[in-house]
């Protein structure tokens, strides 16, 4: 099999051990004579899978009992709509704008009648290269929530300190750093994440929500109503069964490796290998303010578009897949999620040194 290092921002690299286990039981799950993909979502075999996925996630994130865990579809993007629909009817919804995904969340919320959207702060003035600070006094205390994107996948920024919102619940799009950095779930009213980075295959979205925040809206389409999924154990309609099964295997893999704190430690080590190289290089630099640099998505540039393109082309030929920066930012971006191996970062750094020696350049 061709060996590559996959730096994709998502769908992203999955643990090989998980893929191999899935392969070994793909055709005949636990001697049932059926694949997981063929199991009824209401069968006891699948019920065990979804319940054990929830139990493992609760254990990994230390999720308090008064939070519900929902396995949904529609990607993180559907949460841009479901969050304001369920939590902010007739109220104000506040946002901190830190990148392309925050902007999308804001623009979707604005489409919902009866919800007043207020952007409390934005880092768009400097192309989202930093995380703006807000004070508790900036937060209207009658707001339904303050929405943040904990890790900005495209721009490569992250929150090192959560904003103080007083009694207003914090809602977090944690798509690109859930399970990779330790958070205290009780600091949030709601957390959501598309699965395709640190959890499993695309097609599954995880929502963790404080019980008292849901079921407040009289009439809501069932498929958009958190309380319907909460009441039905995420099996209101057919859930993405195979994606939930892989997520369960990934949760068990994270547990086996020592849990989220261990992941965070390893992720910090991996990121610092690349950041050290960027700091020491005369060719590569980070476009992101030092205080906000993400350990999960690391953009870097040469400052010359043609040289960036040459780097990307040569890197690809060496088996470094998906290093090209997002089309809105350019340059390069290394996404280093839980399943990305340390050896891959070391190999990238060795390649960067070689490229710099051959192409020179100054910062
Ligand atoms: C932070 C963040 N939010 C939202 C999304 C959108 O996710 P989806 O494609 O699952 O709708 C992404 C996708 O990469 C993301 O990185």
Question: Ligands bound here?
Answer: pyridoxal-5'-phosphate
Distance between the termini: 39 Å
Average pLDDT over all residues: 97
What's the story with the biggest beta sheet? 7 strands, mixed
**What's the order of the H and E elements?**
EHHEHEHEEEEEEEHHHEHEEH
- Number of structural domains: 2
| Low-confidence parts | none
Taking all Cα atoms into account, the compactness measure Rg is: 21 Å
Helix/strand class:
alpha/beta
Beta-strand percentage range: 15-25%
Portion in helices: 25-40%
Shape: globular
User: Biggest sheet, strands in spatial order?
Assistant: 2-10-9-8-5-3-4
CATH-derived architecture of the largest domain:
3-Layer(aba) Sandwich
Compute the number of helices: 9
Classify the fold: give the CATH topology of the largest domain: Aspartate Aminotransferase, domain 2
- CATH superfamily of the largest domain, please? Type I PLP-dependent aspartate aminotransferase-like (Major domain)
> What is the quaternary state of this protein?
single chain
**CATH class placement of the largest domain:** Alpha Beta
The overall strand count is: 13
Walk me through what this model shows.
This protein has 363 residues and is an alpha/beta fold. The protein has two domains: 16-256, Aspartate Aminotransferase, domain 2, CATH 3.40.640; 260-359, Alpha-Beta Complex (Aspartate Aminotransferase, domain 1). Helices cover 35% and strands 15% of the residues. The protein has helices at residues 16-24, 44-61, 75-87, 100-110, 226-231, 241-257, 259-280, 305-317, 342-359; strands at residues 5-6, 67-72, 92-97, 116-122, 145-149, 151-152, 157-158, 170-173, 190-194, 205-210, 297-300, 320-321, 332-335. The strands form four sheets. Strands 2-10-9-8-5-3-4 form a seven-stranded mixed beta sheet. Strands 1-12 form a two-stranded parallel ribbon. A two-stranded antiparallel sheet has the order 6-7. The mean pLDDT is 97. The structure holds pyridoxal-5'-phosphate (PLP). Pyridoxal-5'-phosphate (PLP) is lined by residues 10, 75-77, 101, 149, 153, 173, 175-176, 194.
């Amino acid at each position: 099999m061709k060996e590559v290092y996959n730096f994709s921002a998502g769908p992203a690299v999955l643990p090989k051990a998980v893929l191999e286990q899935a392969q070994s039981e793909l055709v005949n799950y636990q001697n049932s004579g059926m694949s997981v993909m063929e199991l009824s979502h209401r069968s006891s075999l699948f019920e065990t899978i979804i319940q054990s996925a929830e139990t493992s996630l609760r254990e990994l994130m230390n999720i308090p009992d008064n939070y519900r865990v929902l396995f949904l579809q529609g990607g993180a993007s559907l949460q841009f709509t479901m969050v304001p629909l369920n939590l902010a009817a007739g109220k104000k919804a506040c946002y901190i704008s830190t990148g392309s995904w925050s902007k999308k969340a804001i623009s979707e919320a604005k489409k919902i009648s009866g919800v007043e959207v207020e952007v409390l702060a934005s880092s768009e003035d400097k192309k989202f290269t930093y995380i703006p600070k807000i004070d508790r006094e900036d937060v209207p205390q009658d707001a339904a929530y303050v929405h943040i994107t904990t890790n900005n996948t495209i721009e490569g920024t992250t929150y090192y300190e959560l904003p103080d919102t007083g009694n207003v619940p914090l809602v977090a799009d944690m798509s690109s750093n859930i399970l990779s950095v330790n958070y205290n779930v009780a600091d949030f009213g709601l957390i959501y994440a598309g699965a395709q980075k640190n959890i499993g295959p695309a097609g599954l979205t995880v929502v963790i929500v404080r019980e008292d925040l849901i079921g407040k809206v009289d009439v809501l389409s069932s498929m958009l109503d958190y309380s319907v999924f909460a009441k039905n154990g995420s099996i209101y309609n057919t859930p993405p069964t195979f994606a939930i099964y892989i997520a369960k295997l990934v949760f068990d893999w994270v547990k086996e490796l020592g849990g989220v704190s261990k992941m965070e430690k390893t992720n910090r080590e991996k990121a610092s290998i690349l950041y050290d190289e960027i700091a020491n290089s005369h060719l590569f630099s980070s476009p992101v303010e030092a205080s906000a640099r993400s350990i999960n998505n690391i953009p870097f540039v040469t400052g010359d578009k043609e040289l960036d393109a040459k780097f990307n082309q040569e890197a690809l030929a060496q088996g470094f897949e998906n290093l090209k920066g997002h089309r809105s930012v350019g340059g390069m971006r290394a996404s280093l999620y839980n399943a990305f191996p340390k050896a891959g970062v070391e190999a990238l750094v060795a390649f960067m040194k070689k490229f710099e020696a051959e192409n020179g350049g100054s910062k």
